[in-house]
């Protein structure tokens, strides 16, 4: 297997196993480039608030990774947000279009959690979604939450990545993908990735 294919397999393994180890990341889905994501609930079938990793099948053998967040307001209103590392300009407009079906109503995806401009000139969307799934799921939901990152860190982290996305993603790619023999085939191996990403982000935030 080529080095490139090995790296792609490692990232795929991460995407598939992160829902097993992150309490706010729930599943990964594969969908066509134009799709309505089914979040309709019944008495037995529920969808928790949190993050859903989506792999979009595009033209030919191409695919693209994004994250959809299901969010319920204090008043009980449900909204769906889209994170696309290619940025808000391209999110849901270039190569794919997704919406969500909830309570039998089709809802648009809000792109405000996508970066204002692309973080992904190097084409590592799967790695970006893995990293951001780790980050999003470790942001405090309340003052009593024991997650490591306060909500106030989100704007700071985004501002940092707007300037330093290439060095940030290359560092993780070189250290945790190409620079390790770990293939992320077990939950314990995936936790090594999670802990390393949390540590790297914590160091960045402590210097801002």
Notes on the structure:
By secondary structure, this protein is α/β, with parallel strands linked by helices. The protein has one domain. Helix content is 37%, strand content 22%. It has helices at 3-21, 125-136, 153-178, 187-206; strands spanning 25-32, 34-38, 50-57, 63-72, 78-83, 97-102, 105-107. A four-stranded mixed beta sheet has the order 1-3-4-5, with helices on one face. Strands 2-6-7 form a three-stranded mixed beta sheet, with no helix packed on it. Strand 4 (63-72) and strand 5 form a beta hairpin. Helix 1 (3-21) crosses helix 4 and helix 3 (153-178) crosses helix 4. The longest helix is centred in the C-terminal third of the chain and has 26 residues, at 153-178. The relative contact order is 0.16.
Helix-strand layout with pairing:
Elements: H1 3-21, E1 25-32, E2 34-38, E3 50-57, E4 63-72, E5 78-83, E6 97-102, E7 105-107, H2 125-136, H3 153-178, H4 187-206
Parallel strand pairs: 1-3, 2-6
Antiparallel strand pairs: 3-4, 4-5, 6-7
Helix pairs in contact: 1-2, 1-4, 3-4
């Amino acid at each position: 297997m080529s080095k490139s294919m090995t790296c792609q397999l490692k990232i795929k393994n991460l995407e598939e196993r992160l829902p097993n180890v992150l309490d706010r990341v729930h599943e990964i889905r594969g969908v066509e480039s134009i799709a309505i994501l089914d979040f309709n609930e019944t008495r037995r079938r529920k969808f928790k608030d949190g993050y859903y990793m989506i792999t979009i099948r595009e033209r030919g053998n191409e695919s693209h990774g994004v994250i959809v967040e299901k969010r319920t307001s204090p008043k009980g209103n449900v909204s769906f947000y889209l994170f696309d590392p290619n940025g808000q300009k391209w999110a849901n407009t270039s190569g794919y279009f997704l919406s969500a079906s909830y309570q039998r109503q089709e809802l648009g995806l809000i792109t405000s959690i996508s970066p204002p401009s692309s973080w992904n000139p190097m084409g590592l969307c799967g790695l970006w979604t893995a990293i951001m799934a780790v980050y999003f799921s470790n942001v405090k939901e309340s003052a009593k939450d024991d997650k490591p990152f306060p909500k106030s860190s989100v704007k700071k982290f985004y501002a940092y990545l707007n300037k330093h996305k290439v060095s940030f993603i290359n560092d993780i790619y070189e250290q945790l993908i190409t620079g390790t023999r770990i293939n992320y085939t077990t939950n314990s191996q995936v936790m090594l990735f999670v802990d390393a990403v949390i540590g790297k982000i914590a160091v960045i935030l402590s210097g801002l």
